[in-house]
Structure of HhH-GPD domain-containing protein:
Amino acid sequence: MSGRAQTRSSSRKIPTQPSVQSQAITSTIPFRSRKIRKIASDSSVKGPSRCSLKSDTKAPRFKIAGLDETLILTKPDEEAETLAENSTRLLDVTSAVITAPLIKPLSTDGEIECSLQHLRDSDPLLRSVIDAFQPPSFDSSRSPFHALTKSIIYQQLSTKAGKCIYTRFISLFETEANINSKTILSLSAQQLREIGISGRKASYMHDLACKYEDGSLSDEMILRMDDERLLKKLTTVKGIGPWTVHMFMIFSLHRPDVLPVGDLGVRKGVKMLYKLNGLPDAVMMEKMCEKWKPYRSVGSWYMWRFVEAKGVLAPPLS
């Protein structure tokens, strides 16, 4: 009995060094060492709450506390997202931080000249259009949030009507510098309707502001995302579709290689330039304008000028 007890006692001893066989059993999948991503959390906090349209709303905020060996995402104790939402948010934020446009914006010195030279060399038909007009200029000092808000206001309005409503909108803030997500959320839909902004557009503006407040979007993220990811991200905002994003990327972010395949003016210009029988669809637009890469934004700009001139080109500018 003593011998059997001794055997049982010894069998309960834990070896200080696991054998090779036990390692193979307990760890069947090899792992490479990698950077650790931590998500700070507090089990005592409550679940997520919807973004309110009231000015005193405190929506969850997320920020990057470090981006060297360890990436830590922090959030306030009073508001918390679920773990699954946090993981998705982490991927969005880190991707935005490390992803930057590879091509210089068109507002960079000398970039317009480079684009015109490329388009002249790659498309003889477009060369005649380029030579008939003054080169474009792309200047804008508005923040991405401000520019998107203005884009929503101008949707489906004439330039004159849009300018009138936008002027009234600015008067609510005293100056354009005061336009941000918090000040937008401080305005009710009724206040916005009183200056001519429809209830639907007011809901679009509030949705954009909410996404800024909860960390889904930020100016920094927008500036660092590539074109494809930016299109996907911004179209999650109510009322913002591909056309609005394309215009935003060209005229606010000055992205050089944007082809607004759904824009009627650009489609008409391509039809006239290449003497097509009908308006090209998105697939045909991509095919016909392939030679313009990586400056399709500039080629599109000339299509608008070409349509405005009704296809009649003035003598080349000296």
Remarks:
- Residues 83-98 form the longest helix (16 residues).
- The radius of gyration is 28 Å.
